Description:
Layout: H1 7-14, H2 18-39, H3 47-58, H4 63-74, E1 83-90, E2 96-103, H5 106-119, E3 123-124, E4 131-140, H6 141-147, H7 151-161, E5 163-168, E6 172-177, H8 182-191, E7 198-205, E8 209-210, H9 213-228, E9 232-237, E10 239-240
Amino acid sequence: MSGHSKWATTKRAKAAVDAKRGAMFTKIANLITLAAREKGGDPDTNFTLRMAMEKAKSANMPKDNIARAIKRGTGEGGGQEVAELLYEGLGPAKSQFIVKCLTDNRNRAGASIRHIFSKHGGALGAVAWNFSQKGVIRILKEELSNANVKLEDLELSLIDVGAEDFLTEEEGITIFTKIEDLQALKKFLEEKNIKTETADIEFIAKENQKIESEDKEKIEKLIEELEDCEDEVDYYTNAIL
Length: 241
């Protein structure tokens, strides 16, 4: 069900060097701001905000930064309004990408994403037809061990709560669900004291594409440059590397 593994992306984000830490904090702050603007500044009643705050804490983002981002979203902190933009594109070997940006400068974001695709032999183009949105939760293998649960038993319990599919990889397990069931699944895992690595709404490819070895490095370079873009907060692809 899944294309390019997001475990590598998560590891890179956690291991970000100090030079990139400020840019990473800006991306997460924008996520918090948008969530607070759309559904209020209380994480107890705003699930999207709570997930964004968990990302901030996982990245060791200072509490003051989180508080300022929430105030900005609720209109107390001033600053320019942050907009969510989605760009569709074709990368090397006709791989498909959807890039999510949060930005206070639409022109800059559009020009940056267009330039990245062009630089790596791709172009912006319609690909959303091959993606659908799903709730996605990832749990590290060691967290399952810490919780002392058997994977088979956990999967059966999660199906009862709304899980639709599972993907077991070297790093851990990925759970797919309908968007409306994501919050219930997250709450169930919290009640079982099972820590999640990520919990979010993602674009999942309906048809994946196996990438040949000669094109893998090209796609990886495209992904690295997307992650370095100040306006990009996430990307989704059908490429299996």
